Amino acid sequence: MARAGLVTEKIQLKVADSPPMQAYVAQPEANGPHPGLMVFQEAFGVNAHIRDVTERFAEQGYVAIAPELFHRSAPPGLEVAYSDFASVRPHLQLLTQEAAEDDIRATYDWLRSDSKVKRDEISCVGFCMGGKTSFIADSVVPLRAAVSFYGGGIAPDLLDRAPALHGPILLVWGGRDKHITPELRRSVVDAVAAQHKPYVNAEFSQADHGFFCDQRPAYEPHSAKQAWALALEFLRS
């Protein structure tokens, strides 16, 4: 059941050269127009956590949409347990940068065409795999801002996209993250800084990979609360 004051729905988006892409949308009941926000999933699907985050942003006044990025290889509504990474690995391997770009453009175009969305105030946020997708999105479409939570694979795969970044980017990391080492985190910051792109780099020293998700063992509530406040202020300003 949706939170009070929100409207939620699942929609189908047309994507170039691929099957339709299901997406979860949450938005205020009020007519708006409102800023738009793309919410990019973890590798485990547009699950209860990602839907909850999408609704939380809608409560803050956004038309928020979470596209199902595995739509080429998985049935609509795929959700995988956080303990079962082996099941998501094949889908991850099939999601190329080019495919992600097509998904991003389809999601962005949907927001731009919605009369309840401010066309010049579209941003994105993503977590883990979605953090990497946020970096791609900021290099593909003219976003107002982008937020990347522990985006694995930005370094070394995407560093050459730094010159193309459109909006300011907030990079959020866990200081105890063994998947994304300090050297990899620094290389992302250095690549963005070298291009004189506006950014904020936030490392939470007591947090591990996935610390924002309250359904994962790595959940760290204090860091998650602070990161949420930082992300909201970054997107507003």
Summarize the structure.
This protein is an alpha/beta fold and about 240 residues long. About 35% of the residues lie in helices and about 25% in strands. It has helices at about 50-60, 85-95, 95-115, 130-140, 155, 180-195, 220-235, and strands spanning about 5-15, 20-30, 35-40, 65, 115-125, 145-150, 170-175, 200-205.
Overall tally of structural domains: 1
Determine the mean pLDDT.
97
Which consecutive residue ranges, at least 5 long each, have pLDDT under 50? Answer: none
| Widest β-sheet, arrangement of strands | 1-2-4-3-5-6-7-8
Task: Report what the structure shows.
- By secondary structure, the protein is an alpha/beta fold.
- The chain has a single domain, classed as Rossmann fold, CATH 3.40.50.
- Helix content is 35%, strand content 23%.
- Strand 7, helix 6 and strand 8 form a beta-alpha-beta unit.
- The longest helix is centred in the middle third of the chain and has 17 residues, at 97-113.
- The protein starts with 5 loop residues before the first strand and ends with a helix.
- 44% of the residues are buried.
- The mean pLDDT is 97.
